């Protein structure tokens, strides 16, 4: 599976993630937000406490294990599992002309070749 398809599946079919995958995803997003802001230690502590109170950060070993090889591998592994277990619930909106993946499941025009299927 390519990275673009994996991202598409995680962006549009998050309802198919299991509980540990959801927890890992929230944890990764929270860590990304904590580490992308002000490098001041007070800021980091405040953001960390904010996300802990909302249960976005976890110490769950199984959830954290899903992220051990980085987010890209997490995304690929989860998307592959979803595709294998829920194939009938996923619609990959590929262009009929060039075969590439449309931007969203509802898109009616290809962002690559311009083909329109309205």
Question: Please, could you describe this protein's structure?
Answer:
It is elongated, with a radius of gyration of 17 Å. It has helices at residues 3-12, 19-35, 41-53, 61-65, 71-85. It folds into two domains: 3-85, no CATH class; 94-118, no CATH class. It is mainly α. The two termini are 28 Å apart. α1 packs across α5. 51% of the residues lie in helices and 0% in strands. It contains five helices and no strands.
Give me the secondary-structure topology.
Blueprint: H1 3-12, H2 19-35, H3 41-53, H4 61-65, H5 71-85
Low-pLDDT runs of 5+ residues are: none
Helical residues, percent: 40-55%
Number of domains: 2
Any idea what the radius of gyration is? 17 Å
The run of helices and strands is HHHHH
Could you tell me the number of beta strands? Answer: 0
Number of helices: 5
Structural class: mainly alpha
Give the DSSP E fraction (strand runs of 2 or more residues).
under 5%
Oligomeric category: single chain
| End-to-end C-alpha gap | 28 Å
Largest sheet: none
Q: Give the CA-based shape.
A: elongated
Average residue-wise pLDDT: 95
């Amino acid at each position: 599976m390519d990275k673009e398809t994996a991202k598409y599946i995680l962006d549009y079919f998050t309802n198919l993630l299991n509980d540990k995958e959801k927890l890992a995803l929230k944890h990764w997003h929270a860590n990304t937000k904590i580490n992308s802001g002000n490098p001041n230690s007070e800021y980091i502590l405040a953001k960390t406490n904010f996300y802990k109170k909302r249960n976005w950060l976890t110490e769950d070993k199984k959830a954290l294990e899903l992220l051990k090889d980085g987010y890209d591998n997490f995304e690929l592994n989860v998307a592959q599992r979803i595709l294998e277990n829920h194939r009938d619930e996923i619609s990959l909106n590929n262009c009929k002309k060039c075969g590439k993946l449309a931007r969203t499941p509802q898109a009616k025009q290809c962002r690559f070749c311009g083909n329109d299927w309205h």
